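so ive been stuck on this for like two days lol. basically i have the seq below and the ligand is magnesium ion, smiles is in there too. i just want the complex predicted, nothing fancy, no docking runs or whatever. if the output looks off dont worry ill sanity check it later, just need somthing to start from for the group meeting slides
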Amino acid sequence: MNVRRIQLKGFRNHEHTEIDCAPGINVLLGKNGEGKTNTLEGFSYLCLTKSFFGSNDSTVLRSGQTAFEVDGLLCSDAGTEYRVRAAFDTHQGEKEFFINTSPIERFSSVIGQFPVVILSPEAGAITGGAPAERRRFMDFVISQSSKRYLEDLLDYRRILRQRNRILLDAKLGRTDPSRELEPWDTELVDRGARILVKRRTFAAEFSPHVVQAYRQLVGELESPSMNYRSSIPTEETQTEQETRKLFEQQLERTRPDERRSGTTMAGPHRDDIEFTVNNLALKHYASQGQHKSVQISLKMAEFRYLEEYCRETPILLLDDVFSELDADRAERLLGMLDGMGQAFITATGDEMLRGQVTWGGKNKKFFVQRGTVVYEEAAGVVR
Ligand SMILES: Nc1ncnc2c1ncn2[C@@H]1O[C@H](COP(=O)(O)OP(=O)(O)OP(=O)(O)O)[C@@H](O)[C@H]1O
Ligand SMILES: [Mg+2]
């Protein structure tokens, strides 16, 4: 997938920005607060219908204005062109999304059609935050490649809420919830086992990509690992049926604790992914640069995974990727990006890029200043 052209109107600090994108590396250079991240957010509207920060449309709307528009021309690997447009108007109050002038009713149906991989400083939460952040990352990646998984996940969350409500009521009323719980247990175990098996398969397929990317970025001196840690004692090789049985047994074991706490103590919603570098848990021992390197490796792995499952080269959005990387790792990263399709990279300075990227043709450099984006050649500073 490739973005040929993007236009932002009334979007964040962009009054009217037009970018003719290069098919390779597009670098957006500018000082703090000039509108680089805002530009990437525009690409996220094209690919995901929304902001990658989870910002709502009225926050994205340029202050003092009543409407915004993100308009783009995208081109698939096979050469099919898509005109994509997201428009928001305060009078209407709702965003509209169009592909080739046809309005899209269910925005979730767009997920996976224009695959995108985003690395922003928020990804820090994946390696340094709570287990829920790692589950969110994993669920997001798998959902882009499997609609069935997304459905199971939404079902599971609904079942879990019901089950927890019963447990909490029972705790407060000191009644025995066993009979009420029974049908919910069956449903929980059914969806939960499917989710667990899928996540284990995902982790097994995904982690070699992470290890490979880390090696490319860092070299042989550091060795990373990624392991799925479940609250149910299952193993990679177990079938859905076996997993179901183990989940039932674990629910039985945790029943007294559940009564005391009023919440479900075992299941995919309690699981985690553990990362290590040289056998030391990343969360407790790693440096900032090692965290960043694992985050980059995860995103490179996501790229490979989506490329395979969506049968389309994803677009890469890398926000402030060079901060915390030393010159060696930055150089290796640029080497990795060469041949990975189209990338948009923000940076406050181009010292990491000097001598590493050939400008013109495949790669372009832009300057971002107070919400305007200017191509270097047009700015008259060709080097
Ligand atoms: N809805 C909005 N309307 C107008 N301006 C906005 C809106 N939202 C954010 N801004 C402005 O956009 C600027 C921030 O832009 P952005 O986050 O893209 O900066 P950046 O170039 O990525 O900077 P940094 O290098 O610090 O990350 C701020 O000056 C902010 O006030
Ligand atoms: Mg920024």
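The domain at 2-115+312-379 is CATH 3.40.50.300 (Rossmann fold). The chain has a mean pLDDT of 93.
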